[in-house]
Design a protein that fits this description.
7-stranded parallel sheet; Rossmann fold; about 20% strand; Dihydrodipicolinate Reductase, domain 2; 14 strands
Length: about 350
């Protein structure tokens, strides 16, 4: 199956290129970038020398992309830009997996509140937010446009949803502190992301209203049937890749850490990319970078009555490109783990 990437020059796009070039069931047939058009893929991404099959970046021309014989496109574009491409490609009968935020939020008013105007609001009702381990499988038959979850939301939704549904934790007083590698900010030249600014430095940012909060709370409500409000505190950490998230949530009356793990095991039995660590052991970003895995663990604090839940993932893999390939695998009938580790 021929696939393409629109906007392949960013960090997520580069990881996606590498994954698709090595995928056993697809052929990467197009990589687009307005700024890099005409340049060879290997000259821009030397890591793919020898496996790049002579690919060159082409201009992100909508009409040409829509008229191509490619079956599926990944959109690795900033929010706002992705919607325009999704509109044309879906209309042309292509399957689309969007890595931006444009179709992650189903409520238009909420999207506008966090991101501004939407450029294809008519597509929102038919777009499917897919977190493979949590989304009911009907999307595979119904979807033409899929929104891949954000990096922070994945690290919060995967541990929390089964526990809320099982009544193991309360719905109130949930605090999530998350630390992301600098690649989460994208490939851009800004003083705040220079080596001398970020090395040996960790700081909170976008407190109270980080954009991913809208996605997190909407999905928690959709999965559990009632609104869930959380305190989300994102941090920038001095590392290139990875997300480490710590969630503090009151245990439901009578809930034990054994019940918590039982809820996880029931939800993720057979899930190839969810790894449960023993209680008392905490996930480490160093152990998940380069994989599509999310590692989870939890302990109970008898002094406060809280569960303290920890999660780790690669923000460019399970938090972006790896998850997008996992979605493609499920959508197209390939083995879920094809091309992934």
């Amino acid at each position: 199956m021929k696939v393409g990437i629109v906007g392949a020059s960013g960090y997520s796009g580069e990881v996606l290129v590498k994954l698709l070039l090595g995928h056993p069931h697809v052929t990467l047939a197009a990589v687009t970038s307005r700024s890099l058009a005409g340049k060879s893929l290997a000259s821009v991404m030397p890591a793919v020398r020898g496996i790049d099959r002579g690919l060159k970046f082409v201009d992100s021309d909508l009409a040409a992309l829509a008229a191509s014989d490619l079956a599926l496109y990944f959109l690795a574009l900033p929010h706002g830009a992705a919607a325009t491409y999704a509109k044309a490609l879906v209309a042309a009968g292509k399957r689309v997996i969007d890595l931006s935020a444009d179709f992650r939020i189903s409520d238009l008013a909420t999207y506008r509140n966090y991101y501004g105007e939407h450029h294809a609001p008519e597509l929102l009702p038919s777009a499917h937010f897919v977190l493979p381990e949590l989304s009911p499988p009907a999307w595979k038959q119904e979807a033409r446009l899929v929104a891949a979850p954000g990096c922070y939301p994945t690290s919060i939704l995967v541990p929390l949803v089964p526990l809320l549904k099982a009544g193991v934790v309360t719905r109130e007083h949930i605090v999530a502190n998350a630390y992301s590698g600098v690649s989460g900010a994208g490939r851009k030249v800004e003083e705040a992301y220079l080596y001398c600014e970020r090395a040996e430095s960790t700081k909170a940012y976008s407190l109270v209203k980080h954009r991913h909060l809208a996605e997190i709370e909407e999905q928690l409500a959709l999965h559990t049937g009632a609104p869930v409000v959380i305190q989300f505190n994102p941090h920038l950490a001095p590392m290139r890749r990875g997300i480490a998230t710590t969630i503090t949530v009151p245990a439901a009356p009578g809930a034990t850490v054994e019940r918590l793990y039982a809820a996880w095991r029931a939800a993720y039995a057979g899930a190839a990319f969810v790894q449960l660590l023993p209680s008392g052991e905490t996930p480490d970003t160093a152990h998940v970078v380069g994989t599509n895995r999310i590692d989870l663990a939890a302990v109970h604090d008898p002094r406060t009555g809280n569960f303290v839940i920890t999660a780790a993932e690669d923000n460019l893999m399970k938090g972006a490109s790896g998850q997008a390939v996992q979605i493609m695998n499920l959508w197209c009938g390939f083995p879920e783990t094809a091309g992934l580790v």
